[in-house]
Amino acid sequence: MSNYGVDTVFEWGDFITAFWAFFVNLPLVTFIHQLGHYLMARLFGGRSEIVLGRGKQLFRIGAVKVNRFYFLDSFCHYESLKVNSKASHILVYAGGVLLNLFSLLLINILIMSNTLPETSFFYQFGYFTIYFMFYSLFPIQYSEKHASDGKQIINILRNKSASNIFD
């Protein structure tokens, strides 16, 4: 209890939880999202690359490039789908949300079966996953060449061109 007779909103022990949330959990959810785009693009015969973060490149493993500020931003770029149809492009854009949803369901099943413990780490994973899914599908144009996955899907359905870069 604080000096004012009420519990504090944020205590010193919460810094560890925040560290795990922003430097491990959120980047993990972000990677899973981008991996969904990557896998769908590869499924349809395209070339694809995942970039995590901003700043100077720290390392690269295959098609995944990790930058110094890996926790700030991410994107997936694809090109040259061999199966070049509206459906394939829609599925590539939906791939991030689909893999996020699958990972969320898997974590919940593993917790319900007592294979994984109920911890704040998995709670945060679920929260960030839902956050990512919602904002990815929210149809918004961020800039002239940059739109959310939901907006890109709408553009494809309306016979407009979509860019090959995902958030």
Automatic annotation (TrEMBL):
Residues passing through the membrane, by range: 12-32, 90-109, 121-138
Superkingdom in the source lineage: Bacteria
Record's keyword terms, sorted: Membrane, Transmembrane, Transmembrane helix
Protein name stated in the entry: Membrane protein YwmF
Organism in which the protein naturally occurs: Oceanobacillus indicireducens
